[in-house]
Amino acid sequence: MVGTALRHYHGNAYTLVCYCLMPNHVHLVVSLPDEAPPLLKTLQHLKGYTAQQANQLLGRTGQFWQRETYDHLIRSPEEMTRIIAYVVNNPVKAGLAANW
Protein backbone atom coordinates (compact mmCIF):
# COMPACT_ATOMS: atom_id res chain seq x y z
CA MET A 1 0.00 0.00 0.00
CA VAL A 2 2.82 2.44 0.82
CA GLY A 3 4.70 1.51 -2.36
CA THR A 4 1.55 2.08 -4.41
CA ALA A 5 1.09 5.52 -2.81
CA LEU A 6 4.73 6.43 -3.51
CA ARG A 7 4.36 5.38 -7.15
CA HIS A 8 1.11 7.37 -7.43
CA TYR A 9 3.01 10.69 -7.40
CA HIS A 10 5.64 9.51 -9.92
CA GLY A 11 5.55 11.68 -13.03
CA ASN A 12 3.50 14.39 -11.33
CA ALA A 13 4.92 15.69 -8.06
CA TYR A 14 8.26 13.95 -8.58
CA THR A 15 10.19 11.42 -10.59
CA LEU A 16 10.65 8.37 -8.39
CA VAL A 17 14.29 7.25 -8.49
CA CYS A 18 14.14 4.54 -5.80
CA TYR A 19 12.58 3.75 -2.45
CA CYS A 20 12.90 1.22 0.33
CA LEU A 21 10.19 0.22 2.78
CA MET A 22 11.55 -0.70 6.18
CA PRO A 23 9.55 -1.95 9.20
CA ASN A 24 9.62 1.46 10.90
CA HIS A 25 10.53 3.98 8.18
CA VAL A 26 10.75 4.63 4.45
CA HIS A 27 13.63 5.85 2.31
CA LEU A 28 12.66 7.75 -0.83
CA VAL A 29 14.86 9.27 -3.54
CA VAL A 30 13.09 11.55 -5.98
CA SER A 31 13.88 14.14 -8.60
CA LEU A 32 11.69 17.23 -8.57
CA PRO A 33 10.54 18.81 -11.83
CA ASP A 34 10.54 22.61 -12.00
CA GLU A 35 6.74 22.82 -11.79
CA ALA A 36 6.47 20.36 -8.88
CA PRO A 37 4.53 21.30 -5.76
CA PRO A 38 6.69 21.82 -2.65
CA LEU A 39 8.11 18.48 -1.47
CA LEU A 40 6.86 19.12 2.07
CA LYS A 41 3.28 19.35 0.82
CA THR A 42 3.61 16.12 -1.19
CA LEU A 43 5.12 14.31 1.81
CA GLN A 44 2.29 15.55 4.04
CA HIS A 45 -0.25 14.10 1.60
CA LEU A 46 1.66 10.81 1.38
CA LYS A 47 2.07 10.46 5.12
CA GLY A 48 -1.55 11.39 5.84
CA TYR A 49 -3.01 9.00 3.28
CA THR A 50 -0.73 6.08 4.10
CA ALA A 51 -1.18 6.55 7.86
CA GLN A 52 -4.95 6.42 7.46
CA GLN A 53 -4.78 3.35 5.23
CA ALA A 54 -2.25 1.54 7.44
CA ASN A 55 -4.25 2.21 10.59
CA GLN A 56 -7.36 0.89 8.86
CA LEU A 57 -5.54 -2.26 7.68
CA LEU A 58 -4.08 -2.82 11.14
CA GLY A 59 -7.31 -2.04 13.00
CA ARG A 60 -5.78 0.77 15.01
CA THR A 61 -5.95 4.55 15.36
CA GLY A 62 -3.57 7.36 16.18
CA GLN A 63 -0.25 8.56 14.89
CA PHE A 64 1.41 6.16 12.49
CA TRP A 65 4.45 8.01 11.11
CA GLN A 66 6.97 10.08 13.02
CA ARG A 67 6.21 13.79 12.72
CA GLU A 68 9.59 14.82 11.38
CA THR A 69 10.91 14.17 7.90
CA TYR A 70 14.55 14.26 6.88
CA ASP A 71 15.27 15.59 3.44
CA HIS A 72 18.58 16.16 1.71
CA LEU A 73 19.44 17.88 -1.56
CA ILE A 74 21.62 15.65 -3.76
CA ARG A 75 24.21 17.83 -5.46
CA SER A 76 26.18 15.55 -7.77
CA PRO A 77 25.91 12.29 -9.73
CA GLU A 78 28.44 10.70 -7.35
CA GLU A 79 26.32 11.63 -4.34
CA MET A 80 23.22 10.26 -6.11
CA THR A 81 25.00 6.94 -6.66
CA ARG A 82 26.10 6.78 -3.02
CA ILE A 83 22.62 7.59 -1.67
CA ILE A 84 20.87 5.10 -3.96
CA ALA A 85 23.30 2.41 -2.79
CA TYR A 86 22.54 3.34 0.82
CA VAL A 87 18.78 3.17 0.24
CA VAL A 88 18.69 -0.16 -1.57
CA ASN A 89 21.15 -1.76 0.85
CA ASN A 90 19.33 -0.56 3.97
CA PRO A 91 17.41 -3.85 4.43
CA VAL A 92 20.64 -5.81 3.93
CA LYS A 93 22.40 -3.76 6.61
CA ALA A 94 19.41 -4.32 8.93
CA GLY A 95 19.58 -8.10 8.40
CA LEU A 96 16.20 -8.23 6.63
CA ALA A 97 17.51 -9.36 3.24
CA ALA A 98 20.54 -11.15 1.85
CA ASN A 99 20.93 -8.61 -0.96
CA TRP A 100 18.95 -5.81 -2.49
TrEMBL record:
Gene3D superfamilies noted in UniProt: Transposase IS200-like (3.30.70.1290)
Organism superkingdom: Bacteria
Pfam name, any one: Y1_Tnp
Span of domain Transposase IS200-like: 2-90
InterPro entries: RAYT_transposase (IPR052715), Transposase_17 (IPR002686), Transposase_17_sf (IPR036515)
Protein's name in the database: Transposase
Native organism: Hymenobacter mellowenesis
Lineage: Bacteria, Pseudomonadati, Bacteroidota, Cytophagia, Cytophagales
